[in-house]
C-alpha cells in the first residue's frame, strides 16, 4: 500500500482497510435484486418507521474501509495533489510519522482529522475537488455497500431528508456521495474556509464523536429519526436519533449497540 521508504508501520493500518481489500472481491456482481433475506429484513426495518430525517456516517458504514485514510495515503504517493517530488517526499515523511503517532494514541482523533484537511493550505480547492473525484472513481467506488446505496435511494424516494456526516475531508466525501445519491448541501464533513478559491488552515468543522451530533444540531436543526454508524465515534450521533443502527460495527460500537438495544447489521460482503 505504501512505498517502502515511507511505509506506515503496521500499527497505523486499520482492520477495516485490510478487510476492505477482500471485500472488493466479495461484492455481489449481480446487483441489487439478489439481496439475501437478512439484508431485506434490514432494509425493511430501517424504512418501516417512515423517517423524515436520516443521518449516515460514511467510512465503514456506507462503504468498506476508510476513504479519508486511503486518500491521505494516495495523495502522499501520487503526484496529483503535490506535483513537486521533493515537496511530496518531505510531506510524506512528516505526515506519515504524524499519522503513526495518532494510531499510537499520541494525537487525538479530532486533531488528526482536522490536520488531514489543513495540510492542503495554499492549494486551489478546484484541484482537491478533482483529486477527490479521481481517487474515488478510480480506486474506491467498488467499496460501496450495495444495500446501503439502495437504502439511501429508497429513503430519498420516500421524501426523507438524508444527511452524510463524516470526519474525512469533504472533497472525498462529496465524490463518494455522487455514487450514493446524497446532494452536496446535505454533507457535513471535515472542512476549512476557502479564500479566493484557495484552501486555508481555518477549520470550519471536524464532525467526529460529539462533533457529529453538534454538526447535525447546528445545521439540520431537526430531530433525527434514524441514524447509521460503525464506530465509537458515531455513538453520540446514534444516541440522538429515534432509531439507531450499527452497520458493519467495530467491536466497541457493537458492544455498545447490543447493550443499548440498538439494531446491528453486517453488510453481505462483510459477513
Show unreliable segments: 1-32
Tertiary shape: globular
**How many alpha or pi helices?**
11
Question: Briefly, what CATH class?
Answer: Alpha Beta
Main β sheet profile:
7 strands, mixed
Decide which structural class fits the backbone. Answer: alpha/beta
Element pattern in H and E? HHEHHHHHEHEEHEHEHE
What is the CATH superfamily?
A: HAD superfamily/HAD-like
Order of the strands making up the biggest sheet = 4-3-2-1-5-6-7
Q: Indicate the mean pLDDT.
A: 90
CATH fold descriptor: Rossmann fold
Helix content estimate: 40-55%
Which value, in Å, is the CA radius of gyration? 18 Å
Count the strands? 7
Q: Roughly how many Å apart are the termini?
A: 24 Å
Into which percentage range does the β-strand content fall? 15-25%
CATH architecture: 3-Layer(aba) Sandwich
Number of domains: 1
Q: How does this structure look, described?
A:
The chain is α/β, with parallel strands linked by helices and 271 residues long. It has one domain (13-24, 34-270): HAD superfamily/HAD-like (Rossmann fold, 3-Layer(aba) Sandwich). It is 47% helix and 16% strand. The protein contains eleven helices and seven strands. The protein has helices at 15-26, 37-47, 67-77, 85-103, 109-118, 125-140, 146-157, 170-180, 210-219, 235-239, 251-260, and strands at 53-57, 161-169, 187-195, 198-205, 226-229, 243-247, 263-265. It has a seven-stranded mixed sheet, sandwiched between helices. A hairpin with a 2-residue loop joins strand 3 and strand 4 (198-205). Helix 2 (37-47) packs parallel to helix 7 (146-157), helix 3 (67-77) packs across helix 6 and helix 6 packs across helix 8. It is globular, with a radius of gyration of 18 Å. Residues 1-32 have low confidence and may be disordered.
